[in-house]
Amino acid sequence: MLKYYFLLGLRSLRRNPALTALMILTLAVGVAASVSTLTILHVMSGDPIPHKSNRLFTPVLDNGTTKGYVPGAKPGDTQLSYTDAMNLLASKQGERRAALYGVEMAIEPARKDLGAMSSAGSAASSDFFAMLDTPFLYGQAWNADSDTKAEDVVVLGRSLSEKLFGNSNPVGQSLVMIGHQFKIVGVLDTWEPSPRFYRASDAFGVYDQFFIPFSTAIRHEITHDGGMSCSGGATKPGWQGRLESECTWLSFWIELKSPSQRQDLQAYLDNYAKEQYKLGRFQRQAKNQLFNVMEWLEEAKVVGNDNRLSAWLAFGFLLLCLVNTVGLLLAKFSVRASEVGVRRALGASRREIFTQFLIESSVIGLVGGVLGLLMAFGALALIAMQSKELTVVAHMDWEMLALTFVMSICAAILAGLFPTWRACQVTPAIQLKSQ
Q1: Which of 34, 95, 343, 363 has a CA positioned 20 to 30 A from the CA of residue 349?
Q2: What is the model's pTM?
Q3: How far apart are CA 165 and CA 185, in angstroms?
């Protein structure tokens, strides 16, 4: 019987085609608007590394001066100074430790058809790759010895590798970067964590095209690509002055074997801050903080209140579309009062009438969902064209794909409840007399 009602629902689409098309379009526009906004919010607020996000921690240490400081206030920056990053690297805390910062470097391809180009990447210590479980297409990461010697080695991202070398394996070849020969030791497979939590200050920027050793970037005095705060006091001129300063510009992550070791790491940070205070640093004596991945994304406000407000407004628009759909369904079902009266007189129960009309509403929701899905893809494509940052988040995954269909059908059923109930209240005797 349900199959029969479903076929009736398909046939009903041809009744009052203009009214039916308006209902489908209204529902599709509401679903597309809400799903597009929800998709972006979903991508932005998702867990980028769910299997170990509760074991990866970033420390926040306040090395600012006491001038103008209000006790209890949050530090002006959540990055670390070079001094603190190097001390934590040498601390042997946790299973792995990684210091990193964003860099932009000039590349001179060996291919004659390609001119010099500028590419963005990260300078990171060797534990970075194992810590974040980066997949390799060719080769492997450099080792700790390369970190110690500050060797000129590089791991390419897949897109940059294919651009420079095609589909061939470039491991072992050299690449001229900032005027120096860098040996290619590995090529990452497609790896696009979203959001890019390890650099939360640029969480939705263009994905890194290459990685070089942190120590190598320091040796070549490669300036950082990102924000920097110097609230810790005046700095000396030059690169060495920056390294010796209290300016914060480095990201730092620690991987623990188990989340239960968090308290031990916190105790270490507290003792470290006390030692630095005795050395004349950390004069604010502020609370030292640890954040796992999801806590860090919340602290860094990767998903702002304006993003959540946009999602609520989109759902408000969907609600408005539902109200309009209710009115259209009332108009559509009201002209079928005589049909309902005849069916009731022939023995059909109110439950059967209710089921039939509700399934017809579901069919409208299904068609509206397909159209809404196409419109959502179009909307996301237009959003992605606005900037490189939006390209990272404006894409639909299978979860949102399924949600689109469920949302459209549920919306149609919700909109059809009242019109369907009204259709069931038809009195057969009155309708038969009017014929």
Answers
A1: 363
A2: 0.70
A3: 14
